[in-house]
Structures are given as C-alpha cells and as structure tokens.
Amino acid sequence: MKNIALCLIVFVLLSCKQKNSVNQPAIDEQIITQYIADNKLDAKATGTGLYYVITNAGTGSQPNINSNVTVKYKGYLSNGSVFDQSTNNGISFSLASVIKGWQEGIPLFKKGGKGILLIPSELGYGNVSQGTIPENSVLIFDIELIDVK
C-alpha cells in the first residue's frame, strides 16, 4: 500500500513539474518577433522582453514611474483582436498603478509621442486571464502619450 501511495505522489509531482516546464518567456519572444516580422516593424528590445516602436518621438516632457499621464491607446492580441481602447481624449492614470509593460514602456515616449508597445505576458497579466484577455497573452498597444504631469 505504501508503494502505491509513493508512486502516486511521485506521479503527481512529475505532472506538476511538466506543467511548469513551459518556457513562457521563450514562447512570448517567438510570438512578438513573428509579429514584428509579419508587420515589418522596426522594433527595439529593452532586454526585459518588451519591444517598442516609436513612430513619433514627441517633444514634451518624458514621464517616470511617479508621473501621472494621459494616454490614448488601443490594446489588442497578436491575432489582431481588440480587447480595449480609450476614447480620443485618452485616459489619465498614475504609471505606478498599471501593468509592468506600461510602467516600462510609456516612459520611452515624450509628451506628444506615438508608437507601439509589444508586451510579453510576464509584463502584462501573466498566467491569469483578465476579462477577454486569455492567460499568458502577449499584449500589443498603439500608444499616444497626450500629457505628462
């Protein structure tokens, strides 16, 4: 009986290890680089998994993690399905209160700047689904930094 229980414990532990052996950062990297290639983007990597494209650098001040910003955005998945977007007036928020991908990516723009953030799941919602966003999703945002305070 003890052997059966021991075998069951080993099986459960190995099953858990197999589930956790997925290399999500590598999967996200592949999705992002394929999206960049398919859309012929001139994207730069930050080294954390985040990629960005600046289409208009802007001329105003540049935010930091303690800034309050107003951003016009459209968020979509790599398959093109839109999960959220702001009005033309954008939304205002503290950078400290949003996902890590925005905390890192939005300070790359100056006020008036526009571009794209390609955010790996680790810097988004990770392995948790959020509304219509499935777990482990790469997030893509068209960004316009309207204001910085």
What would you call the structural class?
alpha+beta
- The CATH architecture category equals Roll
**SSE pattern, N- to C-terminal:** HHEEEEEHEE
Number of helices: 3
Largest sheet: 7 strands, antiparallel
Question: Quick one: CATH class?
Answer: Alpha Beta
Number of strands: 7
- Shape descriptor: globular
The CATH topology assignment is: Chitinase A, domain 3
Mean pLDDT: 90
Question: Which residues sit in consecutive blocks of at least 5 with pLDDT less than 50?
Answer: 1-18
Span of the ends, CA to CA: 67 Å
Proportion of helical residues: 25-40%
**CA-atom Rg in angstroms:** 19 Å
Tally of domains: 1
Approximately what portion of the residues adopt beta-strand conformation? 25-35%
Any overview of this molecule?
This protein is an alpha+beta fold. The chain has a single domain (23-148), classed as Chitinase A, domain 3. It contains 3 helices and 7 strands. The protein has helices spanning 2-20, 24-38, 100-105; strands spanning 44-45, 51-56, 68-77, 82-85, 91-94, 114-119, 139-148. Strands 1, 2, 3, 4, 5, 6 and 7 form a 7-stranded antiparallel beta sheet that branches. It starts with a helix and ends with a strand.
In short:
The chain is 27% helix and 28% strand. The chain is α+β, with helices and mostly antiparallel strands.
What is this structure's SSE topology?
Blueprint: H1 2-20, H2 24-38, E1 44-45, E2 51-56, E3 68-77, E4 82-85, E5 91-94, H3 100-105, E6 114-119, E7 139-148
Antiparallel strand pairs: 1-2, 2-6, 3-4, 3-5, 3-7, 6-7
Give a quick set of tags describing it.
single chain; 149 residues; alpha+beta; 7 strands; 28% strand
